[in-house]
Amino acid sequence: MKKVRPKLNELLKERDMTQMQLSEKSGVPQGSLSRFDKNSRHEASHLFSISEALGVSIEDLFDKEQEESFFVYSEFNLLLRLKSKIGAIGLLL
Description:
Elements: E1 2-6, H1 8-14, H2 19-26, H3 30-35, H4 44-54, E2 62-66, H5 68-92
Helix pairs in contact: 2-4
């Protein structure tokens, strides 16, 4: 499962833009913008307005990361498979 993290403040820094400037350009209240990266739920109308004002897709307002447990599980399985292959090679030698 993917972990999703808002990254509005990061986008604003890249554009040297303040929350107030984005608020004026998007029509989204500055208070909502200040809480954007802390919230897990966002109003659809805000997402559309913010993405349009920044010239990015709605998806670009978020970082998507694989959960660590998936990687740990995958690495563990990989190590088990390698160990069994190494053991099989050792038997052939």
